[in-house]
Amino acid sequence: MPMINLHDRHTDAARKRQLYELYLARACGVEFVQPAKVSHTHNPIAPHNPVKFSDDLSQRIIHCKLCGRSKRGSPELGYIQAKSPVIFVVEYAMSENGRLVDSKASQMLANIAHKVFGVAHFSVLSLLKCASHPASPQDIELCAPYLTSQLEAMPPACVVLFGEVVLESLLALDPSHKGALLEAFGKKTIATHSIAALLRNPSLKKDSLEHFRLLQSFIPR
Prior knowledge:
Helix content is 34%, strand content 17%. It contains 7 helices and 9 strands. Helix 1 (12-22) packs across helix 4.
């Protein structure tokens, strides 16, 4: 399948316009406050040499109060390592205070990074930055520009989008584009099944492995 270039769909100007519209909500009395500390209930995996985004982007994410999801959990930047040849993008946050929470999902991502792509470090970003309850279209619309900004700011890497919700929300593409080599965020990108689907139905792992192989020759070494 030919590579699809999506650069024009995600110009900096378009993203800034969208963020500007979202931040008009502040005129209605929305406040940005320092989120409360989150206590760890799992064994967290600490990042190695985490990437530091610009203060402006980081502050806008961690102080975001644009929707009601922030009342159920503090926004998360993600699990971000400086020398990450691979960036995994999932629907819901899998980190707490920059640490990857130990779970079957995080163990699966670690196995994919180490055993499939053969890399020591990886990063995990999420479409939705806080709370794990089902998201409305409005929630996704508010969060997606943050994720796009993060991906564009990350150093050279390959990107794996997990799940149809992530694919459609970020790139406006339907599920038929899973397994297609894409050019997005200035990076080689592939979409595959969601982590939840892979855990629920292990037979899908064969499909995902074929998807991952399309990226292997592009992994920065």
